């Protein structure tokens, strides 16, 4: 795949349904993201490089050590999965020192407000109702940008970036300059928020109102 | 050549519009078509095919669970309906989804007769949709073979 854009985000998508994996994969590709799909929470953790002890031992695939130094910019996971649910996965990610900064998004076919707030309180950035649409994925970019910027701010002097394969630092800085205010606001906002706040409530309201605001079909125009 | 393509395109448009109007498809099918492009030219057909395979399998499993009146595994049926509802929703298979909603209600109150009726209905609906979409895809192929492009159908 030709990658002209330097900032290609890599998303790890988790869903036990083959059908849903195919859907989310295409949606993400169409949004210019690199995608890796796995069919369970334990496989997701394995892919990230976390040890899986008490989980399903059958999870281990052909290669003995899947310890990948892959930079994942976002994890999007289904809520209802056998074994480890999306919520369990979210918790495990947020509890891990190495990966808690990775934004996590939960998907579910059921609109259960208690479930939504539980996930948001546990640290999920967004909660998407299935079927997920292309428009929903535009909400992901700010969260993924945060991780890239965070990494940049953590390594100010380094000129060689092993994790992020970019042609040159100058271009990276240019990206930061183009969106300074928006990004700064985002990270400030999120740092001052300890538990659920208006930001997250907004996400929940947004999510719940998605159903109602979906355009009712009354007219079709066709164009060739 | 041009007239043939135009004719086929009109036919296609008319057909897909009718599918929406008759409630076979909903907005989500439009969303699905947005995901198809030169890089993934068969995406819709692939996804739809996966969906129909799922339907066949789930219906078969649920049928087995509902078979014996004295020994119905409603949990299994519920799981099947849940999956079917999810995938039909993602594909835009509106009628199939509607039946799933009714199906779930029967399952929730453990109404075996109701479940059997819904099962039959969902079987009918998915097969019906399968034929309709096959016709639609055939029209698409004809357009492409005639050198034309497949019209975008947008809803307001």
Quick take:
Chain A has about 220 residues and is an alpha/beta fold. Chain A is built from nine helices and six strands; from the N terminus they run βαβαβαβαβαααααβ.
Would you give an account of this structure?
Chain B: Pfam families: Hpt. Chain B: It is found in: Cytoplasm, Cytosol; Nucleus. Chain B: Residues 40-147 form the HPt domain. The complex is a heterodimer of chains A (224) and B (156). With 224 residues, chain A is of the alpha/beta class. Helices cover 44% and strands 13% of the residues of chain A. Chain A has a 5-stranded parallel beta sheet with strand order 2-1-3-4-5, with helices on both faces. In chain A, α1 links the parallel β1 (9-14) and β2 (33-38). The radius of gyration of chain A is 18 Å and the shape is globular. Chain A starts with 8 loop residues before the first strand and ends with a strand. Chain B is mostly helical and 156 residues long. Chain B starts with a helix and ends with a strand. The interface between A and B is medium-sized, with 26 and 33 residues. β6 (220-223) of chain A pairs antiparallel with β1 (152-155) of chain B, so a sheet runs across the interface.
Helix content of chain B: over 70%
Largest sheet of chain A: 5 strands, parallel
Which ranges of chain B are low-confidence, i.e. pLDDT below 50, for 5 or more consecutive residues?
A: none
Radius of gyration of chain A: 18 Å
Mean pLDDT of chain B: 94
Extract low-pLDDT stretches of chain A. Answer: 1-5, 58-67, 158-219
Helicity range of chain A = 40-55%
Order of helices and strands of chain B: HHHHHHE
Report the structural category of chain B. Answer: mainly alpha
Characterize the largest beta sheet of chain B: strand count, sense, and whether it forms a barrel.
none
């Amino acid at each position: 795949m030709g990658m002209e854009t330097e900032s290609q985000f890599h998303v790890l998508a988790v869903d036990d349904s083959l059908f849903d994996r195919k859907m989310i994969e295409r949606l993400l590709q169409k949004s210019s993201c690199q995608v890796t799909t796995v069919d369970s929470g334990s496989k997701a953790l394995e892919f990230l490089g976390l040890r899986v002890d008490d989980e399903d031992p059958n999870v281990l695939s052909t290669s003995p050590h899947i310890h990948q130094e892959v930079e994942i910019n976002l994890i999007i996971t289904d809520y209802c999965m056998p074994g480890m649910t999306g919520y369990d996965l979210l918790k495990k990610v947020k509890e891990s020192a190495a990966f808690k900064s990775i934004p996590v998004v939960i998907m579910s076919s059921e609109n259960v407000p208690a479930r939504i707030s539980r996930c948001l309180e546990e640290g999920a950035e967004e909660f998407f109702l299935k079927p997920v649409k292309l428009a929903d994925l535009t909400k992901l970019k700010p969260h993924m940008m945060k991780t890239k910027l965070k990494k940049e701010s953590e390594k100010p002097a380094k000129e060689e970036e092993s994790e992020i394969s970019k042609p040159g630092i100058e271009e990276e800085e240019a990206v930061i300059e183009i969106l300074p205010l928006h990004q700064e606001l985002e990270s400030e906002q999120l740092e001052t928020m300890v538990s659920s706040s208006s930001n997250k409530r907004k996400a929940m309201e947004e999510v719940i109102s998605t159903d109602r605001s979906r355009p009712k079909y009354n007219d079709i125009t066709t164009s060739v | 050549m041009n007239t043939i393509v135009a004719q086929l395109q009109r036919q296609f448009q008319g057909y897909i519009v009718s599918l929406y109007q008759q409630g076979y498809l909903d907005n989500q099918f439009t969303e699905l078509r947005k995901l198809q492009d030169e890089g993934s030219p068969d995406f819709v057909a692939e996804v739809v095919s996966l969906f129909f395979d799922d339907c066949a399998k789930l219906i078969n499993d649920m049928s087995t669970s509902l078979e014996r009146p004295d020994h119905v595994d409603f949990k299994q049926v519920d799981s099947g309906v849940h999956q079917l509802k999810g995938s039909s929703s993602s594909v835009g298979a509106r009628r199939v989804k509607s039946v799933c909603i009714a199906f779930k209600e029967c399952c929730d109150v453990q109404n075996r007769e109701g479940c059997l009726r819904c099962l039959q209905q969902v079987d009918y609906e998915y097969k019906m949709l399968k034929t309709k979409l096959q016709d639609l895809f055939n029209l698409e192929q004809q357009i492409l073979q005639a050198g034309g492009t497949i019209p975008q159908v947008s809803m307001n």
